[in-house]
Amino acid sequence: MPEKSLYEQLSDRIFTTGSKIIPKLFAMLADEVDAKLLLSMPGSAEELANKLGLPKVETQKRAEEMYHKGLAFKSVKGSGVKYRMCRDLMQFHDATILWPEAPRNFHDMWQQYMEQEWPGYASFAEKLLPQPMIRVVPVHENIDATNKVLPYEDAIAIIDNAEKIAVTKCTCRVIAHKCDNPVEVCLQIGKGAAYAIDRGSGRQVTKDEAKKIIRQCEESGLIHTTMNKTSMDHFICNCCRCCCQMMPVMIQHGTKLLSPSRFTATINKDNCTGCGLCIERCFFNAITLNDTADLDPAKCIGCGLCAVVCPVEAISLKETKPQDFIPE
Q: Domain check: are 148 and 288 in the same one?
């Protein structure tokens, strides 16, 4: 068997062994010296320089350039900075697409990956992971909870509790551009915000600005998502049905890398006028119209977008799953 190229080895590192496109993406970002540096990480600039026999100044410069491109990440421990390679496909995707100087052909190559290889990889990842990586955050209205809505499942509470917030472009819509939904709407929280600001891939926003973005996304019909954990120090993405990394594979193939919220939409038949606005909003065809709207709870992911547009407030979100449904 022929020896693997440096770029195939990098692909192996982020668990995409066998991909034909991921090595090409690495090659567009890194020359051979950069590739060897990435494969030598983690380490400080001095440690990496010693491993490869390079001047420390050159190594430092290359590591910083790779940080800017999204290939490498920094961690400050003790007295200095250490660099590590992007951890997995998700991190490689999100960080490199937001490289401020990324050329169009780089983004086109990423979209080629999403169209050709991602559906198969997503199916593989679904079987491998103990639970979905991402979960739905319901809209901030019309929630009927048995207990108080938890802070980490309320987009407004996540914003209110954040020490720092930045907004970045949606990586999925940047490369796919299949719709006219707003692009600069992904909110980075806490450490994620500090990273985006430092790297130049996002800009800091106030809590009021962040809440305005949340409202804009709800009006546009975008679903709030975040990490499937109880922590609030991550992100709030605002996802469409056509460009998103998670939604199309779930809609078209049933691949579940996205966990629903703890809530399910319910329809008050006495109030429903049968206008059909809710049907247009639902990504997963959970609502049908028969004089009045009918909802299939098995298909509902509890996003609440249907409730946002109901002119007579006939739709509410009811708590249907226990609090421990969201992993610690």
A: yes
Range list of β-strands (E), the chain: 43-44, 72-77, 80-85, 134-137, 143-144, 165-168, 186-189, 202-204, 223-227, 235-239, 258-259, 263-267, 287-290, 292-295, 315-319
Q: Please check whether residue 167 lies inside any domain of the structure.
A: yes
Q: Is residue 326 part of a domain?
A: no
Residues 44, 95: one domain?
yes
Distance between CA atoms of 66 and 73, rounded to whole angstroms? 8
Q: Which domain holds residue 26?
A: 6-116
Task: Specify whether 111 is located in the same domain as 138.
Answer: no
- The residue written with tokens 């026999």 in the block is 53
pLDDT per residue as tens, the chain (328 positions) = 679 999 999 999 999 999 999 999 999 999 999 999 999 999 999 999 999 999 999 999 999 999 999 999 998 877 789 999 999 999 999 999 999 999 999 999 999 999 999 999 999 999 988 899 899 999 876 666 555 677 888 899 999 999 999 999 999 999 999 999 999 999 999 999 999 999 999 999 999 999 999 999 999 999 999 999 988 778 999 999 999 999 999 999 889 899 999 999 999 999 999 999 999 999 999 999 999 999 999 999 999 999 999 999 999 999 999 888 988 8
35 and 142 belong to one structural domain: no
Question: pTM for this structure?
Answer: 0.91
- Residue 106 CB neighbour total at 10 angstroms: 18
Residues 304 and 184 in one domain: yes
* In a shared domain, residues 210 and 240: yes
- The verdict on 93 and 158 lying in the same domain is no
